[in-house]
Design goal:
Distance between the termini: 69 Å
Strand content: 5-15%
Structural class: mainly beta
Largest sheet: 2 strands, antiparallel
Mean pLDDT: 77
Strand order of the largest sheet: 1-2
Number of strands: 4
Number of helices: 0
Oligomer: single chain
Shape: elongated
Helix content: under 10%
């Protein structure tokens, strides 16, 4: 007797790969990103020129980065 599942036989070799996408629930309303610290690690979010304030996200629009006021 030979086992057959979905076109594969018991002697077939199969390579499998698993891919996952992590999703995070973000409730409605504004929220802050960053912790308001300056220095290493670099690349943190803050509201320029107030480098000691985390960045307030108020909508789903893109976040513009840089050193212009409001970025």
């Amino acid at each position: 007797m030979e086992l057959r599942v979905g076109g594969l036989y018991g002697t077939n070799q199969v390579d499998l790969a698993l891919f996952a996408t992590e999703m995070v629930y973000i409730p409605d309303g504004a929220f802050y990103i960053g912790d308001g610290t300056v220095g290493a690690p670099y690349g943190q979010f803050y509201q320029y020129p107030n480098v000691n304030q985390p960045f307030l996200v108020t909508n789903e629009n893109a976040i513009t980065t840089g050193t212009a006021i409001g970025n």
